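Researcher: Let's try something more involved. This one mixes different molecule types, so please make sure each is placed in the same coordinate frame as the others.
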Amino acid sequence: MSEVTVKNLQADVQSLPVRKVNTRLMKLKRALPLFIMMLPGLIYLLINNYLPMFGLIIAFKDINFAKGILASDWIGFKNFEYLFSTRDAFVITRNTILYNGGFIILNTVLAIAVAIMLNEIKNKLAKGFYQSVILMPFLISMVIVSYLGYAFLSEDTGYLNHTILPLLGLDEVSWYSEAKYWPYILTFINMWKGIGFLCVIYLAAIIGIDQEFYEAATLDGANKWKQIIHITIPSIMPVIIMMTLLAIGRIFYSDFGLFYQVPMNSGAIYDTTNVIDTYVYRGLMQLGDIGMSAAAGLYQSVVGFILVLVSNYLVRRKSKDNALF
Amino acid sequence: MYRSDRITNWISHSFLLILAAGSIIPLILLLSSSFSSEASILKEGYSFFPKEFSFAAYEYLLTNSASILRAYGVTIFVTVFGTFVSLAMTAFLAYALSRRDLPYRNFFTFIVFFTLLFNGGLVPTYLVFTQVFDIKNTIWALIVPGLLMNGFNVLLMRTFFMTSIPEPVIESARMDGAGEFRTFFSIILPLSLPILATIGLLQTIFYWNDWFNGLVYITEPSLFSIQNMLNRMLSDIQFLASSNLGTNTSSAASQIPTTGVRMAIAVIGILPILIAYPFFQKYLVKGIALGSVKG
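Model: All components are placed in one shared frame. Result:
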């Protein structure tokens, strides 16, 4: 029997109103294996993502484990009043936004510069070598990064205090108790660890540029610098805009490891190392102040959500294809 | 060749060389101090060339290897098991979502997608995993929370299935009488090795390097991964002496080459990844570039 006939028959069956309910059931039954495939993943999302979303109500409760989470007393916005009456709320918001804002600008500029330079290297072996080595810090866990940091910054034995500073005739610095140095240290480490990753993305965009543009420009006598300014950068602009807006959408979330591990949880430098994520963690695990911690977490989730929506709206206006949704 | 070309080439080479050196140098400091004698570190500080060459740290690790081997075992188990389950769950969900004939497809896709936009954060997650599901101080705490599957990978894989596997292939498998699972295992998976390798690799790195779950959910030293062990040792120098790492009594604890040993454990913590790096480097680069393109 030809395929056409089978299709016609199916169409006939579907067009009969009496059979409609039956066919829907049949469709569901036929899709049963697909539903079974989805089940583990969906259950995981329910536990790992959706239950905690409902758990956000604890920000409005006075948690009492004896009573249980659901039976604890509602206290309205009290937790938020406490949170925003302290200086902490200001400090963690300021730090989070300034650090992430700085990271976005510096990392983007440096990553693009590195990607352009990598693209200029014609020797395949050298190019591969540079790229793999620059990407290497991406593979190293933050715990080990904090070991590396400690080897440089330790007060008595660190490389800076013991070798570099005496060489320059400067006094030793107790790095882990002086807040003013940390914006530079953390920015540097973030670049060190993140540049390789970002530059892979930009390099992929640069490689995708049509070579004919460059050939034409060379014929017109444009030098390398002019080509970079007038061809390379404009061509990868959509990628730059998309990556930047995505990062802005995440500006309320920090790299917890960077801000917790690398400063070794040193209290003396909280003023410049405390961000929303570390604040929430310390509130929960060290101070046992669940209410305040939950309030700060909800503040982060909600503002973060709004920022994602806004940044996506902006991407969408620029180019529909690059928008997340 | 234009003069400006030569100059850009020259500038590029020197800048990248400096950057590459900067990426490696801290690791050399780590390696060097793991081979330095304790006394020389205390006296001379960390340095790039061991002032007094010594294997003491590694000898100590060898003779007191029980808890380190255990931590290594925990890390390996978590990485292998976690990556495997993660890949299976991600691929199953992504494949079902990639099928245009899946009933309520938009609804299910939205369920996955929404997790990328909004999340409950640490506190409710912690309460779910400790109060509702009591996984504190179990091996599951290192595997399940946060890491097992993420919506981004699901959407990435779904896009791959939709764009790289022609629908007639699935159609003809069904004509031949293959069930959904048979189709999935014997036709879809073999065609999807590139995306499986990419996501599997990223998952492996994330599991190997994860310390956050251990920090939050594990207090029992026998369940520490390598990262958690390092983490604990950095925050508490005495941990090395007091834990079962040293079977020695506390009087002997002062002789433990603490600094060197810590650095040596850090070295063996990154060594497997660095050794394997040249082999998976190509896939990693592909994976990163792929991940930046929207799903």
